Please model this.
Amino acid sequence: MRERKSFIELPFVQSILAALLCILLGLLIGFLVLLAINPAGAGEGIMAIVKNFLTYPSVPAQLKYLGNTLVKASPLLMCALSINFCYKTGLFNIGCAGQYVVGAGACLYAALAFKMPWIVCLLLAVVVGGLWGCAVGLLKAYANVNEVISGIMLNWIGLYLVNMLLSLVKDSASPYTQKVASVNQGAIMPSLGLSNLFSNNKYVTIAVPLAILIAILIWVVLNKTKFGYEVQATGFNKEAARYAGMNEKRNIILTLVIGGALAGAGAAFLYLTGYEEWSVTQSSVPAMGFNGIAATFLGALNPIGTIFSSFFIQHITSGGAYLDKSVYPSQIADLITSIIIYLCGFVLFFKLALNKSISKRKEKKS
Amino acid sequence: MLHITKLFPGIVANDDITLQLRRGEIHALLGENGAGKSTLMSVLFGLYQAEKGEIRKDGKPVKIMNPNDANDLGIGMVHQHFKLVQCFTVLENIILGVETTKGGFLQKDEAKKKVMALSDKYGLSVNPDAKIEDITVGMQQRTEILKMLYRDNEILIFDEPTAVLTPQEIEELMAIMKNLAKEGKSILFISHKLNEIMEVADRCSVLRRGKYIGTVDIKDTNEQDLSRMMVGRDVKLVVDKEPAKPGKPILQVQGMTVASKAHSNNAVKNVSFTVREGEIVCIAGIDGNGQTEFVYGLTGLEPLVSGSLTLCGQDITKSSIRSRSKLLSHIPEDRHKHGLVLDYSLEYNMVLQRYYDPKFLSGGVFLNRKAIREYSNRLIQEFDVRSGEGSVTITRSMSGGNQQKAIIAREIDKDHQLLVAVQPTRGLDVGAIEYIHKALIKERDEGKAVLLVSLELEEVMNVSDRILVMYEGELVGELDPKTTTTEELGLYMAGAKREEVRA
Ligand SMILES: Nc1ncnc2c1ncn2[C@@H]1O[C@H](COP(=O)(O)OP(=O)(O)OP(=O)(O)O)[C@@H](O)[C@H]1O
Ligand SMILES: [Mg+2]
Model:
């Protein structure tokens, strides 16, 4: 009697299809916007965004810029994992952005002011990010403060604290922090030969494989462990979790600590490669934490899925840089990538629509 | 409905079912848990599309693709688990989807007039301005009924409307249904309670495991025949039991007081009693007299205001839920709120109270899927929990009665000295009720203590060894089911009679 589900009815196939659909629609709308602004360059423009590093004709150059995309995709992946993990407990960790910020502050300060080795800097970022998450968790568990509100407030508090702290290790001539690589080479994460694979792109470090490993680890924790069982039960039905004697307060706090630690590590994965410096005059929270939300949903709330979605979102974002600046104003690149990222959030909606059309088609057949 | 067939993964929920509903009749639908009653009604209401078969109304074939189509054809449904918006008022829920607007603004006053007129006409008293989350289930149900009437529906589907009502409310509902039928409305009525079917229905159709068994005229049948048709064997409606042999005390409740969420007064006031091993003590009472809060206090879901609890000699007044659950099993009143994680598979729900047991873990951290699967399969087998795909079925897709059976299986099988069973047979078919009653008595005979909280007089009289009546949060009487009558019990429950109860 057991009827085998056809391929297209499998949940993960549907998630992938829905994600692809979102991406296509996002690209289409992006294209239309380009068309409206300046029809002449629209086709090339959208292609430039999609191609990203493939714009370069030579393979070594392609590899090098693929490396750059990977370097920036790793912190994004970590932020996505942070949001994904908390979401499973029913918490929306919008404070991820702030946890990322304090992680950046901690690791940069340790690297520049105290000349710590990279592993200590990384651990500090993890701890401080975790503490930032813990604050949200404590407020939620003991004072019933909504995690979105406390998260957003802590984002700003974190940003300005970090700006203040990092002013102490600022480059004298620019608003940026000193270059980690020149001040303290020991704080740069080791590459273990990985940079050779990407045409000696020195920014490619073990951060990339580490982020992927952590994604797999998070998947295992969620799906295979006792803790994951509790986390998801709480997310699905808080009352039932309480009835089953799960310690709700502890789980809320623990989840947010882990979420914060992941985001903090994400920051270290970027700033300890030397790819970027922190601008102490920035007055907005880095987009990383927010793009993590899109990556989470595009990845269908699955840690393994977010590996791919984070890469894609970073790919598009980096691709924006190749938009012809003589045809389009430079903000357009951000606009287009934002549109695409925004649509990525609609995966669940598309999945539902997909399901409906499949069952309709089946009916017609019978 | 002609030759309706509906498939779900792993199961034929409806297999070639033909059902005819006459104008102005009350047609009962009877069948075991998971027989496919709710599914069949959902097909009629457009929630599911049947794989085969057609639906005709007044002889004309119709296509019902969604509840809006059903509504256009005058078909309305009250679901087994209500579908009301909790934070809306009664009135807003009634007009939801068919609001009359003027220039984009809601015309609530007119709607309110119509609702009040309907409510007067059919004796469906509701407070239109109360929020759903604040009103009793009885009033929620009347809201659902008004919702159908407001839409001028002429075919009304009631899916187990009486499962959550008090006996008084059931009486009222029966009268309302008869009234509606007299006006020419046709009613489809699902219930597991044979006496209700005998009282209101004109005809009754029986389903068994998705198949149509037959339709009988109520005049020509009786409860025994109906249950035989439904289960395929004779069912004992009253279980036999030996006299109880109570031993040493298991649970001692001393001066327990629990606060109320709804009002400033306490919901449970200074309650004291003892439950011994080898006896079934029942807390009887009309719904809303503090039983729910009492159980919350006992199981640790709510803190006590004052008083103490002793379980097997240990003071558990301040213990955590987890540590109480080592000695206490709890079949909760609300299976969807507390009892189940609906989005988990059945096997995950089967271990909800003991996933942390080393038996179900490997290395102390990882879930041992194999052990969980084997355990769940055993419970499914023993308690006859029916579902489409066994252990891996998502619990949300199971029939209401089978969800309940899963909880009972889990709680009875878990190690415990005291079983707290709140409305354990709510929504179960007669065969399953017989099984559960036997299981409760077996618990008792094995020397465990059972505390049963029930609203069903019959269940109270049949199963318990001792009855404690709760009225407005106080214990007002202790009765022996062998020497008392249902009438007397009723008087105590209504607060007309009371005596001192001491621990
Ligand atoms: N949405 C669904 N997806 C998969 N299976 C389903 C779904 N709904 C119902 N089923 C299965 O179909 C069968 C019939 O379920 P249904 O809810 O109609 O039973 P029922 O007769 O109403 O039982 P009860 O008296 O317990 O409410 C059950 O085995 C159930 O597991
Ligand atoms: Mg049902």
Chain A touches chain B through 27 residues (CB under 8 Å).
